[in-house]
Amino acid sequence: MASRDVEKLDLSFSGVPDKPKKDWVIVSLRILAFLATASATLVMALNKQNKHFVVATIGTTPITVSITAKFQHTPAFIFFVIANGVASLHSLVMIGVDILGPQFDYKGLKPVLIPILDMMSLVLASAGDGAATFMSELGRNGNSHARWDKICDKFESYCNRGGAALIASFIAIILLLVITVMSIHKLKPKK
Amino acid sequence: MTKSKRVLISIILRLLAFGATVAAMVVMVTSHDSAQAFNLTFTAKYSNDPVFKYFVIAEGIASAYSLIVLLITCSQKSSLWRFILILDLVIAMLLTSSISAAAAIAHVGKKGNSHAGWLPICGQVPKFCDHVSGALVAGFIAPILYLFIVLSSMHSVITHLFL
User: Fold this and answer.
1) Sign of the dihedral through C-alpha B109, B147, B163, B75
2) Residue B38 included in any domain
3) How does it assemble (chain A) (predicted)?
4) Which of A40, A127, A189, B144 could join B160 in a cystine, given CB atoms 3.0 to 4.6 angstroms apart?
5) Into how many domains does chain B fold?
6) What burial class does residue A52 get, using C-beta atoms within 10 Å of its C-beta: 0-12 exposed, 13-18 middle, 19+ buried?
7) Do A48 and A69 meet the contact criterion of CB atoms below 8 Å apart?
8) Cα–Cα distance between A156 and B18 in angstroms, integer?
9) Among B100, B129, B151, which would you mutate to test the A interface (most chain A Cβ atoms within 10 Å of its Cβ)?
10) Which pLDDT value is given to residue B126?
11) Residue in B with minimal Cα distance to A185
12) Domain that residue B18 falls in
């Protein structure tokens, strides 16, 4: 009995330095947020649809016009792509900081910088989301008061892919909010 | 920074944010204009477009929240202030998404979108356009103020000053 206690004492005094515990919850959430924002960016950036329309018929030959729907046509979608791109870059950098972080000593402003940057990317991503949501709602339903026709009945797959990018971005926003709250919670008050 | 200075800065910021959100809401709600073209009356109101309705509702929620937090600034529990910090974040998100959406649709109204065949409407209803631009300016100031509010709440949570 006494020898076992001595062995236990020996193990606890072995020379391994005390490393701060890595928080795997927040790292996995950041990985998920990175995947969500990156997929939203990519799906919207590669969103393109060509369609041929018959404009008039001369005799028996129809004249077709090819119209393309691209995401660059709307400034709201450009902003959406840029905002989600920045948010995914931020998530990537934060994953790197979390994995390689505990080697470096955090003093001064650095511990506060992480929640502040998290908050900035959250706000940016939510702004991009809001603009793209209402722009695609306008495209889907049109606006009878302003005489703006809907475009989604003609460009279905463009609209569907935009919707998928939006859903990914909504998931990313929820994850970013949880990450921000957790990183604020990790801030300890200075004694 | 002494505690009273911290309290003063927080109260001033929240008062300004309350003013900005209320101003944005009121200016947007009172915007309307009508134009006549070929015997048809063409009225433009904020409620014609779901984006502007969302803008008014978001600003309304933010102003009510600002008012409530202003009224309970006297309370001193630190757990309450962490919760208020989280709510500040959510309201900042709400405000930025509402102003971004309203600005996107207002851009379509002002410049049109030639690719989608959407004509600008500001030529026919200039008073409505100016009114909406004013509301958007006030709505743009509000999330910036809220960012500063979140930063100041974070500072209070860190330095354990409770306010």
Assistant:
1) positive
2) no
3) Homodimer and heterodimers.
4) A189
5) 1
6) exposed
7) yes
8) 42
9) B100
10) 87
11) B82
12) 3-32+47-162
Residue B47 CB coordination number (10 Å): 12
d(CA A57, CA A112): 67
**Phi, psi values for residue A23, rounded to 5°:** -90, 100
Q: Is residue B110 part of a domain?
A: yes
Residues of A with CB under 8 A from a CB of B: 69-70, 73-76, 79, 112, 115-116, 119, 122-124, 126-135, 137-139, 143, 145-149, 151, 173, 177, 180-181, 184-185, 187, 189-190
| Chain B residues near residue A151 by CB distance under 8 angstroms | 116
Dump pLDDT digits (tens) for A94-119.
Answer: 998 888 876 666 666 677 888 899 99
Task: Calculate how close chain A gets to B70, using CA atoms only, in Å.
Answer: 22
H helices, E strands: number in chain A: 5, 2
Inter-chain touch B98–A147, beta carbons under 8 Å: no
CB of B105 within 8 Å of any CB in chain A? yes
Residue B25 within a domain: yes
pLDDT tens, B4-58?
Answer: 788 888 889 999 999 999 999 999 999 888 877 776 777 888 888 899 999 999 9
Q: Is residue B152 part of a domain?
A: yes
Evaluate if residue A59 carries a pLDDT over 50: yes
